[in-house]
Write a structure and sequence with these properties.
ABC-type transporter activity; transmembrane
Length: about 300
């Protein structure tokens, strides 16, 4: 005679259980995943995805280099620019502006379009069903902007020195100014990109919403046009936005001291560069925190 062991009816799996990894739950006394470690791990994933997108590579990563080449080739025949005795080549004059534009493109344009698209196609909704926290998601995005922004700046500087024959600074103080303007500018741009991603209603409209904003800022902030030649009212408007201050900080690092007289107040105003970028960093952080959702409000 054989005996059978009674079985206890199994409980039905709770909805969404398949999306949770095996192991102790965060709220049940288990080990909570380290949000910073997860965010750092996502940097590589986000960076690979960035370079797989050809339009992002062209319009954000290579665009400043292409524009520097166009401006150098188109206006070099007009001679050097700047105050008498401290003139520089056209390429040297436009290099700081292109470095600043690269920060804006890598952070604001790239993240605003990317996150709006992920929100529209359901990627964020799927991520919201996993243990991934918004902190880890943000760290992955911001880290990707740091990596691509640093590579972009390095490419610009190498091309400037080797292809366009632009003499780079030799003073340590100039490179220190470049370093802190870069770090503060890229962080501010990344947070503003996350904040701006809430504005487009869909992924299809993201480029139509974001690119005009970025383009207008470049024209009024001394990237494509000499800032000293703009009307005073336009300079005042540009001073309300971070790109003008990023471009001014980059000019302080790469242009001779005599060029400071061409700025709006006759000096580099590096203290105000830091203040305005910090103000916009805080604005981006607050708006990102208030507006970020894994799913659209109208979903």
């Amino acid at each position: 005679m054989t005996t059978t062991t009674p079985t206890t009816p199994s409980r039905p799996e709770p909805r969404g259980a398949a999306a949770r990894p095996a192991g102790p739950r965060a709220g049940g006394g288990g080990i909570r995943p380290n949000r910073v470690a997860v965010g750092i791990a996502r940097i590589g994933y986000e960076t690979k995805g960035y370079f797989r997108s050809l339009d992002a590579v062209f319009f954000t990563f290579l665009f400043p280099l292409i524009m520097l080449g166009i401006f150098t080739a188109a206006f070099s025949s007009q001679g050097d620019l700047g105050p008498t005795g401290s003139q520089v080549s056209v390429g040297a004059y436009y290099l700081p502006g292109m470095l600043a534009a690269g920060l804006l493109l890598s952070g604001v344009q790239n993240l605003a379009v990317d996150i709006a698209t992920e929100k529209s196609d359901g990627t964020l909704k799927r991520l919201g069903g996993t243990p991934l926290s918004p902190v880890s998601y943000f760290l992955g995005k911001i880290g990707q902007v740091f990596v691509t922004g640093a590579l972009q700046a390095a490419l610009l500087l190498v091309a400037a020195a080797t292809v366009f024959g632009i003499a780079l600074p030799t003073e340590p103080e100039a490179w220190l100014t470049f370093a802190w303007v870069f770090v503060l500018g890229i962080t501010t741009s990344a947070l503003l990109g996350i904040a701006l991603s809430a504005l487009p209603r869909s992924g299809k409209s993201a480029t139509a919403v974001v690119i005009p904003i970025v383009l207008v800022l470049q024209f009024i902030s001394g990237v494509y046009l000499q800032f000293s030649m703009l009307p005073e009212w336009m300079q005042n408007v540009a001073s309300l936005f971070p790109l003008k201050w990023m471009a001014q900080g980059m000019r302080a690092a790469f242009l001779p001291e005599d060029f400071a007289a061409l700025e709006q107040h006759g000096s580099w105003d590096l203290g105000w560069v830091a203040v305005w970028l910090l103000v916009w960093l805080v604005v981006g952080l607050i708006v990102s925190r208030l507006t970020f959702r894994w799913i659209r409000r109208d979903a």
